[in-house]
Amino acid sequence: MATVPVKNAPTDETKETIEQRFRRLEAAWEADTMYLSDTQKIIDHPAFQEIIGMGEAVIPFMLHDLEKEPGQWVWALPRITGVNPVSRDDAGQMRKMSEAWLKWAREQGYQW
Amino acid sequence: MVDHLAILFPKLANKYRVTSERDAEYNCIAWAAGVTNAWWWPIGDPKDNYWPHEVPRVLTLEAFQAVFEILRHKTCESEQPESGFEKVAIFADDRGLPTHGARQLANGRWTSKLGKAEDIEHDLHDLEGEIYGKVVLFLKRPVEQ
Q: Which structural domain range is residue A49 located in?
């Protein structure tokens, strides 16, 4: 009897790495939120929430991106780590926020 | 080449000009206020965004109006260019919640920062639609000499 394959079932060949999953979710999130200013909508997007749910494993990828250019991972990192090294005076200043997170990460011993 | 912007904002097609690179450091409200180093939005964790401390952190048209009043704007009736004044337009969705801001250029067209994407020069109503809703508020201030 023929069996019906489970749609998109991962196999050894197709199983995503953590980084591949992270980048796939990032692409979906960016496609939907690239043109938005509403921080809450950007953060509440299901793909962004799924990335946050991946936990500490994705932090090095975010740090890698932030080192290249300031970005919105500064909104994910406090939700993963439970801490926020950004000064209240720097709120919204994405470059300073990114620098604060990179400094914090180095102090914590992260490598990326 | 696929024009991704024209897919999302159909009225833009062939009538806009990209004027900056993509940049996640600032958004439309900051750009409308003349700022390029911060993301201005009222809601979310206060450490996530800049918002003038004098203005309530609520997603209302009144709060956005108050922000621009701090910057010496006053409400006005139309988008028509007026000599000696700079105008700002605020967009809102069908619930009246602000979504976007644009600033008028000296040539009468408008400049918008599109989220964390590019700045563009465009005709004001060409950004109206599903994503940003409609223009609901105009403000103006004297141009600094």
A: 19-31+39-108
